[in-house]
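ESCALATION

Customer reports they have been waiting on this structure for their group meeting. Please prioritize. Original submission:
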Amino acid sequence: MNLKKITSLTMLCSIIVMTYTGIMLFIAPPGRVANWANWKLLGLGKEDYAQIHITFMVLFVVMTILHVFYNWKPITSYMKNKAKEMIVFTKDMIVALVLTLIFIFGTIFAVPPFTTFLDFGDGIKHSWEKEYGTAPYSHAELSSFKMFTKKLDYDLEKSEEILNSNNIKFERTQSLSYIGNENSVSPQFIFNLLKKNFEKDGKVTISLTGMGKKTIFEVAQTLNLSTDEFILKLKALGIEANENDKFKKVVEKYDMSPMDVIEKLGYKK
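Update from on-call: job pushed to the front of the queue and completed.
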């Protein structure tokens, strides 16, 4: 066996795996949606892709160190002039550093086309949210069944009847996530069962998570308001906004958080 060849080939395999997992993480829904809907793509969830990405990053770093060790002479030759003198900042090195800095600062300071690419990714992530919906409150999947029904003001005994009638095994003290895993369903599926039955009695539940990343238009839709009506309500609070503005960016100008505004409008967390 040739360790030098093994190192290069392992680096290649690591790059391929990291590229694949990186793409999956780029298009995966936000954690609040992935956990809530038990999102999976090609048999793996977001957490699975993240863990694989991290372990292969470690493998890639180790192989890179070995690669530098085995190819030290060729690498140092890139930093020598025609007289074979060592010059770290050769033209090639300067170009490489400039490209690196452009990507770093272009991303930090939100300069196109970096923002265009990142916005494209956000659009894909947001599309999952539209398809799967969001939890009625943050980390609802971690709440016990008893606490979940209490927060939503659902009758506990009736909620138990609904789950029992759908052959879902559970205990009051178990989290929605645990109940979902045990019954091969998502926390979202359990919520939808309850929501469907309680809405027949006129009890409407609005999911208030992820508001900060939505536009004014999208928040208005979530709150079952017209865009103009929502903008007028914001104006009454002294907040000026347009329908395409990001909700979080707008309210932060007034030293408020999205949930501060939602609560001022009369909605509960």
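Sent to customer with the following note: The longest strand covers residues 40-41.
Escalation resolved.
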